[in-house]
Amino acid sequence: MKVLVIGGGGREHALVWKLSQSPLVKKIYCAPGNPGMAALAECRPIAADDLNGLAGLAQKEKIDLTVVGPEVPLVMGIADLFTKKGLPVFGPEAGAALLEGSKAFSKKLMREKGIPTADFAVFNEAGSARNFIEACRDFPVVLKADGLAAGKGVLICHDRDQALRGVDSILADKTFGNAGNTLLIEQFIRGDELSLFVLTDGERYLMLPAAQDHKKIGEGDTGANTGGMGAYAPAPLGDRALLDKVATQVVEPTLEAMRAIGHPYRGLLYVGLIIREGKPFVLEYNCRFGDPETQAVLPLIEDDLAPVFMQIARGRLETERLKVSGRRAFDVVIASGGYPAGYTRGHVISGLDGLPEDILCFHAGTAIKQGQTVTAGGRVLNLVALDDTFSGAAKKAYAAIRGISFKDMYYRRDIGYKVLESGS
Ligand code: GLY
């Protein structure tokens, strides 16, 4: 079969890498792709939000299956468009992608279904949100812009003044644009975050090994939020007992709720959880694979995912279980210095050809300039190592990083510190 992967980051490189191992997959196209993906696939310069351009490519190249990486085209309705044109697509239609596209929608659904999540209130204008904050007794509180804000629309406010400034910034100053037309104010739940990927046709589902990522730029999980600076899987926190609770308390009621409103969820549902005293609470849903967790999770899946994606695209998941490796996967993100704020691009990356054979290198923000691979984004590369232990995998990943260099290169040196300290 011919597969089209939409997107151009580390997540999509990992998807292409996994699909390229399938005996069923004869050719992979990417749009727009990146230089790492170009080694395995044919890249076309079509942006991930150019829905008509992508549909035209899929029709022209007679693509059998399109796998959508980022959330923006899904929320815009790429799955609806492809389905209308008879093009099989792995990813939820817009009505289901609302689980990520509108936090107010997903929180109300959780409340109605009794799915464990932080208490919240929804506001459309600054006055009533300010009054709510004035009456608040417990801080921190979490402010969330309702719509997609490229991972930036969440503020954790530690006191009343900070929260009042946050309300004005989102609802009055429109710091996050139209994504902040509606604001959610949520109770802050302390605990450990866990990312769970669920492959589903809307009814049947398969859960992948749980992962943990590090969203903060600084060591010790400090500083500004990023897309994610590293990840590891399977996260020991996501053991069988916990995943059973998540299945019955979260995954099944969520899928049932989406079926009930006439938008069965077909694709990859990413459940972002916070675990407190063994209890799962939903932080958020995403309608796509997580980045960088995917780069750690996919190397653990021993079975072919191409037929699974195809079954879901056709509306019926037949596969009942996936073979998962007993190994540990560890992903360190290498970023441009200054990220997630300003950074420069175009720096030559050296060392890519000398990486050890057992290291997976997934490109994120790279480009080719005058025949050389250069930096082209905030997150530049992911180095992924597998081993029988997390400490072994971490050692391999960090040893490999020493062979890579570019101007202003930055990475966190403490990825997985909790799991490493616990000796798992
Ligand atoms: N790693 C967080 C995300 O993909 O949203």
Radius of gyration: 21 Å
Number of strands: 23
**Termini Cα gap:** 40 Å
Largest sheet: 6 strands, antiparallel
- CATH topology name of the largest domain, in short, is D-amino Acid Aminotransferase, Chain A, domain 1
CATH class of the largest domain: Alpha Beta
Question: Which term fits the overall shape?
Answer: globular
Please count the helical segments.
Answer: 14
Averaged pLDDT: 96
Give the SSE map:
Blueprint (H helix, E strand, L loop, with lengths): L1 E6 L2 H11 L6 E6 L2 H4 L3 E2 L7 H10 L4 E4 L2 H6 L1 H7 L4 E2 L3 H8 L1 H11 L6 E4 L2 H10 L5 E5 L8 E4 L2 H13 L10 E5 L4 E9 L4 E3 L4 E2 L2 E3 L3 E4 L4 E4 L6 H21 L6 E10 L2 E8 L6 H5 L8 H9 L13 E9 L22 E5 L2 E4 L2 E4 L3 E9 L2 H12 L7 E2 L6 H5 L3
Parallel strand pairs: 1-2, 1-4, 2-3, 4-5
Antiparallel strand pairs: 6-9, 7-8, 7-9, 10-11, 10-16, 12-15, 13-14, 15-18, 16-17, 18-22, 18-23, 19-22, 20-21
The chain binds glycine.
Provide key terms for this protein.
globular, D-amino Acid Aminotransferase, Chain A, domain 1, Rossmann fold, Dna Ligase, domain 1, 14 helices, binds glycine, 424 residues
